[in-house]
Amino acid sequence: MGQGCAGPLPGAADWTHEYADAGNSGASRDELVRCPFRMLWFGRPGMARIVDRHAAAASPLCVNGLLFHQGINYLWGIDAYNGCILWEREVPGAIRTNACSSCSNMCATPDSLFVATDKTCLRLDPKTGRMLATHDTPGPKNGVWGWIATDGRRLFGSAGRNHSEAGDIFAVNLDTGKSAWVYRAGRVRTSTLALADGRVFFFDSRPTAEEIDKVHRAPKRELKEEARPPVPLPSQPFQPASRIAEDIRTLVALDARTGHAAWRVPMDLTGMGKQVTVICSKGVLLIFANMDGSRFAVLSAEDGTLLWEKKAQYFRRPVVIGDTIYTLPSAFDLHTGKPRMRVNPITGEESPLVWSKAYGCGAVSASRHAMLFRSGSLAYYDVTQDTGVGNFGGLKPNCWISQIAAAGLWLAPEGSAGCTCGYPIRSTVAMRPAAPTETAWTCYVTGIATTPVKHLAVNFGAPGDRRDSTGRVWFAWPRPKSSFGLKLKLKTDVAKDMGYFTRNPKTTPIDATDKPWVYCSGCRGLLKVSLPLLEKNQGPRKYTVRLHFVEPDSLHAQQRVFDIRLQGQTVLKNFDILKTANAPNKAVVKEFADIEVTDRLTVELVPRTAESAPTQGPVIAGIEVCL
After folding, report:
1. Is beta strand 112-116 parallel, antiparallel or unpaired with respect to 293-300?
2. Is there a single domain that holds both residue 25 and residue 118?
3. Does residue 482 share a domain with residue 422?
4. 3-state secondary structure 153-221
């Protein structure tokens, strides 16, 4: 890959604002950032000059292959493709914390990096960091510069007593450097500001008496109580107290060109959650709580008409990818609020899509195909393939957003400064999309039924779950240790001094298969395994059973010989993997049809001798069961 200043890759996209774009979607339009991932480079910046992770600093930005990261009164311009620091400079006041409840102080275009530093915004050359211009907040009081955004023609901002609250919303003409307009608002939380579709949207916390009266006179809407998510959340979701002070605000839409109000809609936000904010995408406004919440509302960006509203418990702010809202642990259609569905890989039935993660604070960022977040360490979720959560251990993001999807890469500038947890890698990293044929172990998210089984594939000794080329999920056994992974109720009997093994698929070539990774792990000495396929009132049914074998050791024929029993009946005697394959590390599949099951399938591997050495005990790589 070339230097960042040569421009991005075809299909790559920029990350120009705190939440990817000025509309706060949280997801870039990058088509290249997709799972699985491999390390591209790592290096500076390290912990020096980085804001403490607990302070929830402003997110990095990336434009035209240039990565911008903000520290404590310090800025870096980095080549996103090779990690070369192109420029760095001291910038007094270039620090923004508590971005989760206020806003960022940076935005960018291909020819300008804007950084607000108190009452002034600096306009820098993205390639060199050289000062191009400065812009001050308007008005005689010259308030603190809070929110910042740009549409390429104008620079937008808010001015108030601090970064979190504003009384003025304004725009600067970038061609002339002069004020374009100033809108005098009541009281605006800067976290509610969004720019999209030629308009600036925000909530004014000081509605007029008429607007309050309009809300009081409106019919009360009784929202259906959504079922509790079928997956555990990293922490308890926001629970409205039994008595909460009334919270009525006015949603305002300004014409971005003139600053005139296009419409005002008063809303009752009582009990919605912590730090209500706004996303504008695809012509609609999504209203939600920026931390943990219990309710969504979606309005037309054209005129403020309410399109739908629903109760839903969620952890941290959602992202909007295309026409879908992803909010841990669920996914909804942006335009209707209906749950997104998935096909259960075991039962074949449709159910609402759910996802989760392990412990950890922070918000989600995304591309078209992947969500990036903290699940203990750096983690991702494959949106396109629905394969579960994958991790990169030893690396830790900050408590809000310090990893972004841009320039065709997963970019994660150092964000763990100030942390005392056991995450040893304290550097900036960039991940590239890997070839689809490369191994990508994940932990498939639970919340789905496992009976009645239509198809079940178990990969013994595997480090995680994985989909094969046909889309079928192979589930690792023993299960990865997590609070959210699929729970399988297998019962196994393994011979003494034997057990599971895992080998590297990159260094262990396997012949005669299109999924060699299945045969790079297994279990030596598996004597018996029982798999639940049906509840007692669902059977009997007849299944096809495929047993997947490989000889992993340097043996001779007749050293490892065993019988195979299904449901107590011997279906194959004196099976010798090496004799059948004529070579070690070659896949062997034995298929048995019309095996009747009433509730559980029992597979037994019976060694020829009562006492077998590890090199003589039965060995198996996987079991596949299907109707």
Report:
1. unpaired
2. yes
3. no
4. CEEEEEEECCCCEEEEEEEEECCCCCEEEEEEEEEEEHHHCEEECCEEEEEECCCCHHHHHHHHHCCCC
Angle at 161 between CA 160 and CA 166, to 5 degrees: 30
pLDDT at 251: 98
- Residue 410's DSSP bridge partners are 405, 431
The answer to whether residues 426 and 460 belong to one domain is no
Predicted pLDDT at 240: 47
SS3 percent helix, strand, coil of the chain, rounded to 5, is: 5, 45, 50
At 597, which CATH number? 2.60.120.430
Among 105, 121, 120, CA closest to 18: 105
pLDDT for 54? 83
Strands 526-532 and 293-300, bridge-based pairing: unpaired
Compute the distance between CA of residue 594 and CA of residue 545 in angstroms, rounded to an integer.
Answer: 8
Residue 509 CB burial class (10 angstroms; 0-12, 13-18, ≥19): exposed
Give pLDDT, residue 140.
64
Cα(472)–Cα(487) distance, integer angstroms: 17
* Domain span including residue 387: 4-215+245-433
Task: State the DSSP H helix or E strand holding residue 579, giving kind and residue range, or none if neither.
Answer: helix 577-581
Cα→Cα distances 154→110, 187, 270, Å: 14, 23, 34
What is the structure's pLDDT at 27?
A: 98
Domain count, the chain: 2
pLDDT at residue 108, rounded to an integer:
98
Strand partners, 267: 249
pLDDT block averages, 10 residues each, the chain of length 627:
56 97 98 93 89 88 96 96 96 91 95 95 97 89 91 96 94 96 95 97 95 92 74 57 74 98 95 87 94 88 96 88 94 95 93 86 94 91 90 85 96 83 82 83 84 97 93 94 83 94 92 95 96 92 98 88 97 96 96 97 90 80 97
Residue found under tokens 């990893």: 403
Q: Provide the 3-class DSSP secondary structure of residue 18.
A: coil
Are 115 and 122 in contact, with CB atoms under 8 Å apart?
yes
- 37: which strand partners? 433
pLDDT at 26: 97
Q: Which residues of 169-179 are buried (b: 16+ CB within 10 A; e: fewer)?
A: bbbbebeeeee
